[in-house]
Each structure stands twice: as structure tokens, then as C-alpha cells.
Design brief:
605 residues, alpha+beta, nine-stranded mixed beta sheet, four-stranded mixed beta sheet, 17 helices
């Protein structure tokens, strides 16, 4: 499994939180239940069984529920006053709910253990639960809010101290000897010292996991986590500032095929930028296919050029540099009303469909039905240079069709056998004369409102049918991140009866569909038959739109594009993976040692 898949797999642990009102209701119910269970294990009789039941529930609400509601309402205000991020009302209340639940569960377990061994652990177990609640609070606040250590400590300790305060008050009102013998100050002191022990453990753990990323990339794991959560919660792109500081400027290429009507207006553009639309959500260049397509008035298809996550733009603002390169290519475009037919070539796993236009070709490359991921830029560049030598054409637009997803396989990198298979396939291509008139028809559909949950990005499905010498070729492009293995062939079989002779399906590799609920989200995993019906409709509608055009191709350099940089994305992913691996060992050891010290401090000393 690749490093990217390891990182993507982490996303399944993040879910949409309930609203604040729902959390308050859950706090009331759970705190009542916690109190009842505690009094069943450590009964303090105040009357008959029904009175004891309600007394226990009231105790739970006062000691656990009320502090949770108070801190859930105020923590957000504290964080905002300190210019912290991410802790909105629903997050604050849910954090209080979880902390309360942890304290209650620990109290119930400790009291139950005391019952088994005929020991009175009722109060100490609650104290220990309060310390666990503090540990969870401080970890979440430190990791997500960008608040300094001391301020995080003050905010995190409020809920445990309120629980201890309510415990002292209820004990005083009910004349429970334990609190009087222990002393109010001693009780609070015990909790604060135990919390400091946890604070030291958490700070040590965070320092260990932060240092590799800070050393390698200039920002820490907690920093990128907090800004990423901010992006998911509010849609802000503050995280792009981190990437911008660590990014590198590169020069790369964009291939442009333009089809203009006989009156001189552009009917369609087919673009293949060697820029990667990642990393995910709306961060960086993730929505590049749509943003770039919307920059032009004509029907525009933005295919996936050879590139990996190293070529992710650090921000969406960088996409304008790709647009500038495309417009420069159009300014220097030479057109011809003639083109060749579409012909396929293959060698071992590599398959290339090629069509010749003025000054160049469109080459659609795929390893399907074998699985693959991104074609690395150096591999694509080598293939394009080879095509110039073999075909004698200057502007050969190479497209990574990205239509046969295999999570385990990974991309096509220098030295992989697939590189040489691709080059050997290009060597098989025979140059063709431009002898036949061209007709082009286009169609766009949002697939009936499909969205990222079905693996479909904002640009939906775009189809261009090119007719040359009576041969009709359908260029079908999904705004998606790759395609389920075998789905390409399923589509091919489904459209055999349509009035076309050739078809290739592609994906843009947009990473807007890579959500927290689905790290990888290739098209074809859901709604297979519905999607195929839209493919059929789009082809038929594009055929109806056919009209004579002139065509031209050009390639242009994209200059000074700020990206993650060669090897930086690999370093980021591998660093995160190593942090996760190390944390699986360091975290349990650190917190087990802290828990042992806290248990000794609370239950023994």
C-alpha cells in the first residue's frame, strides 16, 4: 500500500459533529445515567429506591452535566478571545460532552473495581476521571486551536475543576465524611498536580511528533492539522500559506488543442496541463480542472497531464499562470481544417490512442485494463520527447487518462517497466497525413446533480465527439479522481450500439472529491448504471452538435508555478506516515507512564 493510501485512510476517523443543542441534550441524558450507575455501585441512601434513583441522576447532572454545559458554552469564547481557531459552538459543546463521558466512565469503572475488592474508590475514581477529562481537553485544544500551552492549560482545566467543585458542594450538602477528612484544598491540589503530570506527557508526545515535520518542511504536524480542520469547517485556505512557504517554483508544460468554427470563434478547447490537481478538498489546485475551464468562454475539457502530487499548486491563485500559458498558446496557434483518424497502439500494458492535427497530436495514454495511478512528469516528458523524434511533430499533447485505479499499484515512475512500455508503444505509431475534414460536437452534463459523494466534481461529465473521414471518436472526460478498475471496459461495452467508432474515457484527477469520508473516491464505485446512461446521453447529444471546424495544437511552458515542489509531497506524505507509525508506539508508552504516575498520586499517596 502506498504512503498516500495510508494517509488517506486516516480520514475515516473524522466525522460530522452534532449541533450544540443535540450535544446539550446528550449531556443531560448521559450525566443522569452516569449518576444513577455510580449510585448503584456506591449507594448513598436518601430514601426509598425511587428517591435514590432520582438522587443519583441529579448527582450525575450536577457533578458531570452542569460543568460540561458551562464549559461547552464558554470554551468557545475563551478560544476566540485568544485568537484561536476551529472551536465553534458545536465543537466546544461536543468536546465538553466527550470529556464528561470520559470522566463518568472512569468514575464508574473505578467505583466498580472498588466494589469488587471491597474498597471505597468512589471519590478517587471521580478525581481520576476528571484528570482523564483534562488530558483529552488539553490534547484537542493544543492540536487544533493554535493556542499557546499555558492558555490551553487554563481552558482545559476549567471543566475538571468545575466537576471537583460540584463534587465538593454536593458532598458538603450531604455531609459526606470523605471530603471533610480529605480537605477541599487537598482535593483540588490533587487534581491540579495530576493534570500537570498529564500536561507534561502530552507536551512531550507533541514535541516528538512535531519535530520531524518542522525539520523537514518548516511547519509542524499540529499546525497543518489545525489549519486543515479550519479549511474543512469554514472553507478558508489559510493552510495554503504553509504550502506557499515550503513550496518551490517550477516550470512545466501545458498542451492545448483548439477547435474553432469556420467563422473564427473557438468551439472547444482540449487542455492537458502537466500540473496535478491536488492535494484534496478545495486546497491548492484541487479544483484546477473547473477553475481553469471556467476561465475560457468556449467549451473546455481539462484532462490530466503527466504529473504527481509534487506538482500540486500551493494555492488556487497559481492557476492563473496556467491560464496565461494557455492564452499564449492560443495566440500562436496555427489551424488546419484537416486531421487524421483516431488509431490505437499498444505494447504490453501500455495503450495509446492517437489523432493527428495541425502541428501535433493528442495522445491518450492508459495502462487499462491494468491498474495504475499518476504518470510522473519526467516519464511524460520523456514520452513527449520520444514522440517528437518518432513522429516529426512538434506539439504532442500527452494525456494520462487516469482511468484504471489500483490503490496498491501506485504511479508510473522513472525506472518502472511501464515507462519503457509507453515509449515502445509510441515507437509503433506511424505518422499520418492530414487528409480529411474535421467536425466536432460537444456536450456537458452534471449527471443529474451528482457530487463528490458519487466521485463527481463540479465539472461533471464533458464529451467531445471528433468526426474525421466518417469515423467518430468520443473523448469522454469525468471530473473525477481516477476510475474504478474495470469500469472503463464496462462503459466501452455499454456504448457499442451508439453511432461512434472509437471512445476513450478519462478523468481529470480532481481532488475535490477526495473528502474526509473517502480518501480515495474513484468514479464507478457507486451509481454505475446511472453514470453509463449519462455517458450515452452525452455522446448522442455531442453527435447532434457536430459542425465543421479547424483544429490546431500547441504546447507552452508554464513559468514560475509555485507548487509543493519536486519530492516535497513525497516527503510530506512519508513524514506523516512515519509520524503515525511512531505515534502508535510513543503514544501508548507516554500515556501509560503518565496514567501510572497519576494513579499512584491519587489512589496511593
Amino acid at each position: 500500500m502506498s504512503s498516500m493510501s495510508n494517509v488517506a485512510g486516516l480520514s475515516k476517523w473524522i466525522r460530522t459533529l452534532p449541533n450544540a443543542k443535540s450535544s446539550v441534550l446528550m449531556i443531560i441524558i448521559l450525566s443522569f445515567i452516569i449518576g444513577v450507575l455510580l449510585f448503584l455501585l456506591q449507594p448513598v441512601s436518601v430514601g426509598n429506591g425511587l428517591e435514590d434513583f432520582f438522587y443519583g441522576g441529579a448527582f450525575g447532572f450536577v457533578v458531570f452535566g452542569l460543568p460540561a454545559i458551562i464549559t461547552g458554552s464558554t470554551d468557545q469564547l475563551w478560544v476566540e478571545s485568544l485568537n484561536g481557531i476551529n472551536l465553534k459552538a458545536k465543537h466546544s459543546m461536543f468536546l465538553a460532552l466527550v470529556s464528561m463521558s470520559l470522566a463518568g466512565i472512569v468514575g464508574i469503572i473505578g467505583t466498580g473495581v472498588g466494589l469488587i475488592f471491597n474498597m471505597n474508590l468512589f471519590f478517587n475514581s471521580i478525581l481520576f476521571g476528571c484528570v482523564i477529562a483534562f488530558g483529552f481537553n488539553i490534547l484537542v485544544i493544543l492540536a487544533t486551536t493554535r493556542i499557546k500551552l499555558f492558555n490551553s492549560f487554563i481552558i482545559a482545566i476549567i471543566q475538571p475543576l468545575l466537576m471537583i467543585g460540584m463534587l465538593i458542594i454536593t458532598s458538603f450538602l450531604n455531609n459526606i465524611d470523605y471530603i471533610f477528612s480529605l480537605g477541599y484544598i487537598t482535593t483540588i491540589f490533587k487534581v491540579i498536580i495530576a493534570s500537570v503530570i498529564f500536561l507534561i506527557a502530552i507536551y512531550a508526545f507533541i514535541s516528538v511528533v512535531e519535530s520531524p515535520m518542522k525539520k523537514n518542511l518548516g511547519f509542524g504536524a499540529m499546525e497543518i492539522l489545525s489549519y486543515f480542520i479550519l479549511h474543512m469547517n469554514e472553507g478558508t485556505n489559510t493552510i495554503e500559506q504553509l504550502f506557499d512557504n515550503a513550496g518551490e517554483a517550477i516550470d512545466t508544460l501545458v498542451g492545448v488543442a483548439s477547435f474553432r468554427r469556420l467563422d473564427g470563434s473557438i468551439k472547444a478547447l482540449f487542455l492537458s496541463p502537466c500540473v496535478h490537481p491536488g492535494p484534496l478538498g478545495d486546497i491548492g489546485g484541487s479544483n484546477m480542472p473547473t477553475i481553469l475551464a471556467n476561465s475560457f468562454d468556449a467549451f473546455t475539457m481539462v484532462a490530466h497531464g503527466p504529473s504527481t502530487h509534487d506538482f500540486n499548486p500551493v494555492s488556487s491563485d497559481e492557476i492563473v499562470k496556467i491560464e496565461d500559458a494557455v492564452r499564449k498558446a492560443l495566440d500562436n496557434m496555427e489551424y488546419s481544417p484537416k486531421a487524421s483518424e483516431f488509431i490505437r497502439y499498444s505494447y504490453k500494458k501500455a495503450n495509446v490512442g492517437v489523432q493527428f492535427f495541425k502541428n501535433g497530436t493528442i495522445m491518450l495514454s492508459t495502462l487499462a485494463p491494468s491498474g495504475s495511478d499518476d504518470i510522473e512528469y519526467a516519464v511524460g516528458l520523456a514520452a513527449m520527447i520520444e514522440s517528437q523524434k518518432e513522429l516529426g511533430t512538434e506539439n504532442n499533447i500527452l494525456v494520462d487518462c487516469h482511468n484504471s485505479f489500483n490503490e496498491e499499484k501506485g504511479g508510473v515512475l522513472p525506472g518502472n517497466p511501464e515507462l519503457f512500455q509507453l515509449i515502445d508503444t509510441i515507437k509503433l505509431i506511424e505518422p499520418l497525413d492530414l487528409e480529411h475534414d474535421i467536425k466536432v460536437g460537444c456536450y456537458y452534463t452534471d449527471l443529474g446533480g451528482f457530487d463528490k459523494h458519487q466521485g463527481i466534481g463540479e465539472s461533471g461529465l464533458k464529451t467531445m465527439v471528433v468526426e474525421v473521414n466518417g469515423q467518430r471518436t468520443a473523448y469522454v472526460l469525468f471530473d473525477s479522481n481516477n476510475m474504478e478498475l474495470g469500469y472503463r471496459e464496462t462503459i466501452f461495452n455499454a456504448v457499442e450500439d451508439l453511432d461512434i467508432d472509437e471512445i476513450e474515457v478519462m478523468t481529470t484527477d480532481t481532488h475535490t472529491v477526495n473528502t474526509l469520508s473517502a480518501g480515495y473516491n474513484p468514479v464507478g464505485t457507486v451509481e454505475k448504471e446511472k453514470i453509463i446512461e449519462f455517458v450515452k446521453i452525452s455522446i448522442n447529444e455531442a453527435i447532434k452538435d457536430l459542425e465543421p471546424v479547424e483544429a490546431g495544437t500547441n504546447t507552452e511552458r508554464i513559468l514560475n508555478l509555485k507548487t509543493f515542489g519536486p519530492n516535497n509531497s513525497t516527503e510530506l506524505i512519508s513524514t506523516i506516515s512515519s509520524i503515525v507509525a511512531v505515534s502508535k508506539i510513543i503514544a501508548p508508552l507516554t500515556f501509560i507512564v503518565a496514567i501510572i504516575f497519576v494513579i499512584i498520586w491519587i489512589f496511593v499517596l
